[in-house]
Amino acid sequence: MRRWVWIWIVLTGIGGCHKDDGPKALFTVESTSSFTIPAGLNTVETHYFVVNNIPSSLEAQLKSHNLTLDDLEKINPLQCRLLALDGTPTYQFIQDISIMIYTKKNPVKREIAFMEPVPLNTGSSLQLFPTLIDVKDYLSSSVYSVEIRLRLRGFPSRTIDTRLDLAFEAR
Q: What is the CATH number of the domain that holds 66?
């Protein structure tokens, strides 16, 4: 009898466990922009690249889904990727990278993606880890800006035109 009680307790405990991800994603907000990493940057300083006035498609997405900003619980970073436009340079010279978001109305910079350290075998595409912050206030503006912070382990041997792909998940 005791054995059946223990089996029942274990099965009840296992059956009651489930992952709660919260509300399901309603849509994604995507943007693409570009910046240039010049050749010959030093490894002593942290280098900052600013991309201003990235259009936010949040308002258009809300209209197409017949929603308002109040219907959204939160908007989280989903994906952040750097891509060398000519495909040949590699990003292995980067030690670590951080992407910050801000707007004119909300100048407090918040990290939306990072990678520490960047793997040595990195090619011409670099997928960053998204953070868990809520960027609803930033994307509700018509435009936003990002700041790319790079610390280098080596010198870039040539100028790299880079595309920055961002995606955010609205819930």
A: 2.60.120
Phi, psi of 169, rounded to the nearest 5 degrees: -110, 120
Q: What is the pLDDT of residues 100-140, one digit of tens each?
A: 999 999 999 999 999 999 999 999 999 999 999 999 999 99
Whether 122 and 93 have beta carbons less than 8 Å apart is answered as no
How many folded domains does the chain comprise?
1
Residue with tokens 């059956």: 15
What is the helix (H) or strand (E) element at residue 13, kind and residue range? helix 2-15
The conformation of residue 121, written as its DSSP 8-state character, comes to T
Alpha carbon 73 to chain centroid, angstroms: 18
Query: 83 near 91, Cβ under 8 Å?
Result: no
84 neighbors 134 (Cβ within 8 angstroms)? no
| Helix ranges restricted to H, 43-108 | 58-64
**From the CB of residue 42, how many other CB atoms can be counted at a distance below 10 Å?**
8
- Domain limits at 110? 25-170
Residue 67 lies in a domain: yes
pLDDT of the residue at 88: 81
